[in-house]
Amino acid sequence: MSEFAELTFRGRTIRLPATVGTEGEIGLDVSALRDEMGVITLDPGYGNTGSCQSSIAFIDGDQGILRYRGYDIADLAEHSAFLEVAYLLLHGNLPEADQFDEFAEGVMDNMLVHENLRHFFNAFPRDAHPMAVAAAVVASLATFYPESMGARRGPDAMESCRRLLAKLPTIVAWSYKQSRGVPVTYPRCDLGYVQNFLHMMFSTPYRTYEPDPAVSRAMDLMFLLHADHEQNCSTSTVRMVGSSQANMFASISAGVSALWGPLHGGANQALIEMLQYIQLAGLTARQFVDKVKNKEAGIRLMGFGHRVYKNYDPRAMVLKKAAGDVLQKLGVQGRLMDTAMELEQVALSDPYFLERKLYPNVDFYSGIILHAIGMPTNMFTAIFAIGRMPGWLSQWMEMNSDPQTRIARPRQIYTGATQRTYVPFRQRGDGRIPNRRPCSAGE
Ligand code: CMC
């Protein structure tokens, strides 16, 4: 055995073997702990629990580093584009020209969804949240591709990856069209991935939307920066659901639902709602920050803080510049943006945030950019989902190729009542027998 730690409890000592990652991170293997010692580890929120070994993304939260397959996020943001990064995440290496053409064509050819699926959108209420629609429609794809449901690795599984990558922008854009009560717009083969998404969102039967190149670039950048973030809440959900050997569509649908929460991907929508609240309540940035610091009704500064980054989020660094460019290019001004900038300034010089190492995260600036380009607020998290798709898919594929994968099944420390004996109704309370009788009424 190489390196290990020793754990002593109630006079017994066991060895916990160390696994060292390529960037020097060390994990102590506790998998034999319960069998050998009769105890488990307890780690609410999994802040100290490694659930797998992965070669997809690396984060150093103290240094503010994020790399996809070894490539620095800032480098990729400057030189690459979303679809190339999707290939990188899925296949492990940057593509050569032929490989990229084949991959991109495969994705573009799959953007159309089955015509029967179009009718689903009419069945949702007008004000259905796009994340609810996305989760439902993604899960329903399993009914359209039953032949690929069993594929867990290899070309058939990769084909499902391309389908999901291709179809989510269509699903998201169509959920928007449905909410407006206007006809859906079909994808076009002469447009790229991002341009197609914007086209399906904003073109109408009587007017073709021509996106400003700055808008297309910012959207591509946002997708790229969101593409993977190792074992975050939604990705862990995708892995957990997939670990039961549920199909890829079911696993990704669960990931969409996990992303929806305001502490995760929903923070970009929550940020704009927070800014609107500040305006409506007539508060200054300082007054709102004081409320946050006093933890009034659990108020948090949305778009700030991160479980892993205890330094500037490197994605936020790139997006901050992009946000500045987009605001300038589109000449966007307004009180909402002013409030966001003031909040950033106040928080970044306040000891509460400095001491807790709370910096703006990716959602702070993505919310600002999406608002500036006129994206409806309730679409923000669905856009995050489009970006995160390559990461979910790569992690799902990696999990299915990992011989160490077992069904994810955490333990617990039970804190409820110890064994109790059932007491029939007649001997309980006022002794009355309920009108609504359970099957066996326990009289
Ligand atoms: N505003 C005010 N206080 C905060 C914030 C915030 N945004 N984030 C953390 N804190 C405080 C928290 O109250 C706690 O203070 P104390 O020590 O006095 O109890 C301390 O900082 C540590 O917080 P925590 O809740 O233990 O941190 P966590 O790692 O469990 O939570 C987080 C991480 C992202 C959920 C949290 O920072 C948060 O709620 N941020 C706002 C929501 C947000 O922007 N989410 C997007 C994250 S980035 C995109 C993504 O990955 O999805």
Task: Explain what the structure shows.
- The protein is mostly helical.
- The protein has 18 helices and 6 strands.
- It has helices at 33-37, 73-79, 82-91, 97-108, 115-123, 130-144, 154-180, 193-202, 213-226, 233-243, 248-259, 267-280, 285-293, 314-330, 335-348, 351-355, 362-372, 380-401, and strands at residues 4-9, 12-20, 26-28, 57-60, 65-68, 71-72.
- The strands form 2 sheets. Strands 1-2-3 form a 3-stranded antiparallel β-sheet. It has a 3-stranded antiparallel β-sheet with strand order 4-5-6.
- The model has no long low-confidence stretch (mean pLDDT 94).
List the SSEs and their pairings:
Layout: E1 4-9, E2 12-20, E3 26-28, H1 33-37, E4 57-60, E5 65-68, E6 71-72, H2 73-79, H3 82-91, H4 97-108, H5 115-123, H6 130-144, H7 154-180, H8 193-202, H9 213-226, H10 233-243, H11 248-259, H12 267-280, H13 285-293, H14 314-330, H15 335-348, H16 351-355, H17 362-372, H18 380-401
Helix pairs in contact: 3-9, 3-18, 4-7, 6-7, 6-11, 7-8, 7-18, 9-14, 9-17, 9-18, 10-11, 10-18, 11-18, 12-15, 12-17, 13-15, 14-17
Bound molecules: carboxymethyl coenzyme *A.
